[in-house]
Amino acid sequence: MQQGKHNLIKIPRKRGETTLLRVDAMAERMGGQCSDMYFQEVNVTGKWADAKQTGGFRYHAQGTGAKRALWQRLGPVHIKVAHGHTRKGIKYLNFYVKNLAHAGHVIGGLLGEDDHAKAEKPPDSCVRLMAL
Q1: Which residues have a Cβ under 8 Å from the Cβ of 99 and sit 6 or more positions away?
Q2: Which of 28, 46, 56, 125 satisfies CB 3.0 to 4.6 Å to 21 for a cystine?
Q3: 3-state secondary structure string, 23-55?
Q4: Of 67, 93, 92, 72, whose CA–CA distance to 21 is shortest?
Q5: CB-based burial label for 8 (10 Å; 0-12, 13-18, 19+)
Q6: Residues 51-98: pLDDT tens digits?
Q7: Residue 130: its pLDDT value, please?
Q8: Beta strands 77-85; 91-98: pairing state
Q9: 4-126: what fold?
Q10: What's the rounded Cα separation, in Å, for the pair 42 and 24?
């Protein structure tokens, strides 16, 4: 529910250790003030990503020539980033992950053990209260 950059996955979760996999996504509200949120950018970095491609992977929803999304193996984890669009033409990215339980480390980020309370809270301007 919050716009901005969100850490989805960090392996290992603990600070100070070499990052094996980190996935960050930029969420933007597309449309009106309280419209739906869509991932517009996904960045995949870390030692496992560098082993496949130096500098990791960067995906942009507004990019042209999006090819069919395929599963990529990064260490024991598999990820896929797919381009999508709404009926109204809003472009976005979908992020998929599997085999996180096989990572061999504690997982951080919103899809791991980190607190997601701040990210899930709608902006105050979008909260509708009714006094009974």
Answers
A1: 76, 77, 78
A2: 46
A3: EEEEEEECCCCCCCEEEEEEEEECHHHHHHCCC
A4: 72
A5: buried
A6: 999 999 999 999 766 678 899 999 999 999 999 999 988 999 999 999
A7: 62
A8: antiparallel
A9: Protein Transport Mog1p; Chain A (3.40.1000)
A10: 6
DSSP conformational letter for 12: S
In eight-state DSSP terms, residue 68 is P
Q: How far is CA 128 from CA 120, 122, 132, in A?
A: 16, 10, 13
**How, if at all, do strands 21-29 and 4-11 pair?**
antiparallel
Amino acid at 97: V
Contact assessment for residue 90 and residue 31, using Cβ atoms and an 8 Å cutoff: yes
C-alpha torsion 68→74→78→81, nearest 10: -40
104 pLDDT tier (thresholds 50, 70, 90): very high
Domain map (residue ranges) of the chain: 4-126
